[in-house]
Amino acid sequence: MSSEWQTVEIGSLCLGIYDGPHATPKKTAAGPIFLGISSLNDGQLNLSELEYLSEEDFAKWTKRVVPQAGDIVFSYETRLGQVAVIPAGLRCCLGRRMALMRVDPAKVISDYLLYAYLSPDFQEVIRQRTIHGSTVDRIPLVEFGTFPISVPPLDVQKEAVGILRALDDRITLLRETNTTLEAIAQALFKSWFVDFDPVRAKMEGRPPEGMDEATAALFPDGFEESALGLVPRGWQPNTLIKLTAEYGGRLQTGPFGSQLHASDYVEDGIPVVMPKDIKDRRATTDTVARIRLFDAERLARHQLMKGDIVFSRRGDVERHALISEREVGWICGTGCLLLRPGTAWISPTFLSMVLDAPQARTWLVQHAVGATMPNINTAILGSVPVLLPPDGVLSAFEEVISTTEAQRSQNSSMAETLATLRDTLLPRLISGQLRLPDAESEPLELAA
Questions:
Q1: What is the pLDDT of residues 125-152, one digit of tens each?
Q2: Do 381 and 240 reside in the same domain of the chain?
Q3: Mean pLDDT of 267-282
Q4: Which of the chain's ends, N or C, has fewer CB atoms near its CB within 10 Å?
Q5: Number of structural domains found in the chain
Q6: In a domain, 227, yes or no
Q7: Alpha helix locations (H) across 49-153?
């Protein structure tokens, strides 16, 4: 460690350390935000699912402290090691099991303390000081201020934060772009295959909006009764198992525990997609397990192809990942089901979005078995109803949407690459093992 770095008690870097009330207020539909520990997500605040409280309760819950921009919030019971910085404009109070550090700007930059908190060295301090209870693990908040942490002078802090923040900002932008692209894709899917807007427009004698004549001609101008209710004329009610059989595909269960043991996993190797790796219709590598090439070849039946769909078969059974070019050759893991539509199938994206629609997700949850944890099998998944449009409509949809899907996959891959780079640089920058300009060129070039 550089001689510029000093090991100090974390409390010496703060103007104060506070915790929230040891209770939960009545939730309201709107108002100030009640910030729970579930909002802490690896250095960031996840504000996608918020809870609110009344102004009256807000006054009570902020008697000790009102969180302000630059404060650092962290969990001291369960989810230990999780931390985030309060952004500007967020009016909130601390929830249970959450505490707050108000940093001393004369000694430390908020973002630097955030990254130092996330560093392996300080995470190890947390692990060593953890008290393991019968129900939850915790760190003693009365002793937290004495926890050791290393800090350099402010100018060095600023250098490290500049690099790490540039990477995080780029990662955030890529993920926000993907959210927008997914919203666009979902809107198109809903218009064509849920609301049937082109069909309704033709029934009313209007040209479908945003559609050329050739594409519009693929849609009928009326509806007919079917087993699935009123559907566009000529569209066929089907099921996944019949569809896969018709197009030369298959449904299968991932490898069982007897085929894939804990001892088979290695640090570097072929990724194995488990239920925990499925998010937003994609397979992620944040915590993915890996196996040797030898074991992947042994499990060749479970190797993934582009257009495959991997389902979680227990727990969150409605979640799935559409396999892109990047994941070809990866392995469908234990706890998953593999849906291969078949080489003759035209639009993997259509099928993925059908299975992600509220109707299909609800159907899977309602038909899952298991008293304590929902489970599905190939028979249940194969019975999911699918309204099948003509091949021409599927081809048109895939042509329109494939560019968006490819961009999402590319963005996800880049975000994961940058996250890996950030996680590699973070301990070296925080410890002083790496200094500018050594660290500057590569990450900034990638983040551009």
A1: 999 999 998 889 999 999 999 999 999 9
A2: yes
A3: 93
A4: C
A5: 2
A6: no
A7: 55-61, 110-118, 120-129, 141-144
Report the C-alpha gap between 54 and 28 in whole angstroms: 6
Cis peptide before 437 (omega within 30 of 0): yes
Euclidean distance between CA atoms 84 and 118, whole angstroms = 10
Q: Is residue 445 one of the residues assigned to a domain? A: no
Tens digit of pLDDT for each residue in 393-442?
999 999 999 999 899 989 998 998 999 899 999 999 988 787 766 555 55
pLDDT tops 90 at residue 73: yes
Residue span of the structural domain in which 287 resides: 236-388
- Domain check: are 245 and 117 in the same one? no
From 151, 172, 187, give the residue that closes a domain: 151
Model pTM greater than 0.85?
no
Which of the four pLDDT bands, split at 50, 70 and 90, describes residue 1? low
Which backbone phi and psi does 235 adopt, to 5 degrees?
-80, 140
The C-alpha atoms of residue 133 and residue 396 are separated, in whole angstroms, by: 58
Closest CA to 160 of 429, 443, 373, 442: 429
Query: Both tokens of residue 20?
Result: 């929230």
Domain CATH code at residue 249: 3.90.220.20
